[in-house]
Amino acid sequence: MKLVVGLGNPGSEYEWTRHNVGFEVLNLLARRHRLLFQSGRKLDGFQGPAPFEYAVHPSGALLIKPLTYMNRSGQAVAALARQLAVPPADILVVYDDFDLPLGALRLRAQGGAGTHNGMRSILDSLSSEQFPRLRVGIGKGVGSSGTDAARHVLERFRPDEQVEIEISAAHAADALDAWLGGEDLPRLMTRFHSRQDPGSGRN
């Protein structure tokens, strides 16, 4: 079994904020396949400590949205991984990255958390960096750290940015479908590294 985890914060007030791109990609993927998210309490036999929503992808994978707020995302992910015996290599995490230009996509097989608190929670909870991740660029705000950055990631996209981020979310959903269909990461990295930042060499 595979898990695809989208990171975000629960609640309508956070919809289409920059920090919720992971949720929005999974919402798009679910709509594409006519799936409904339901409470993790309905997942047969699950006895985990943290709330989440899930949908079952046609491949049999679980699409997971932790409902713990960003900083504790790893609680639900680690509990699911343990109970379902899913190794880190079969857990792909989708999340926002303000160090990437708006709409840029970066897929990697492993790595650190950078400045992202949700990813740091998952790394700590899994005690591993050896899992794939798909970063979606949200662009930098006025500042690159501290209160400016914290405010920036909780803002909604401007109208002139919304079309671009929705296109990138659709490409991200394409990448997830391909991964769940068995396409290997090196090929996916070639296909989906962003058109917005060609030739930069960043990964």
Instruction: Note poorly predicted spans.
Output: 143-147, 198-203
Which strand order does the major sheet show? 2-3-4-1-5-7-6
Counting structural domains, the number is 1
CATH class (first level) name: Alpha Beta
What is the typical, i.e. mean, pLDDT?
89
Broad structural category: alpha/beta
Distance between the termini: 27 Å
**Shape, per Cα inertia axes:** globular
Largest beta-sheet characterization: 7 strands, mixed
Question: Roughly how much helix do the residues carry, as a percent range?
Answer: 25-40%
CATH architectural arrangement = 3-Layer(aba) Sandwich
Number of strands: 7
Topology order in helix (H) and strand (E) letters: EHEEEHEEHEHHH
Query: What is the CATH superfamily?
Result: Peptidyl-tRNA hydrolase
What is the count of helical runs?
6
Strand content: 15-25%
SSE order and pairing:
Layout: E1 3-6, H1 21-32, E2 38-39, E3 52-56, E4 62-66, H2 73-84, E5 91-97, E6 105-108, H3 117-126, E7 133-137, H4 146-153, H5 159-180, H6 185-192
Parallel strand pairs: 1-4, 1-5, 5-7
Antiparallel strand pairs: 2-3, 3-4, 6-7
Helix pairs in contact: 1-5, 2-3, 5-6
What would you note in describing this structure?
The protein is of the alpha/beta class. The chain has one domain (3-192): 3-Layer(aba) Sandwich (Rossmann fold). Helices cover 35% and strands 16% of the residues. The chain has six helices and seven strands; from the N terminus they run E-H-E-E-E-H-E-E-H-E-H-H-H. The chain has helices at 21-32, 73-84, 117-126, 146-153, 159-180, 185-192; strands at 3-6, 38-39, 52-56, 62-66, 91-97, 105-108, 133-137. Strands 2-3-4-1-5-7-6 form a seven-stranded mixed beta sheet, sandwiched between helices. The longest helix has 22 residues, at 159-180. It is globular, with a radius of gyration of 16 Å. The model is unreliable at 143-147 and 198-203 (pLDDT under 50).
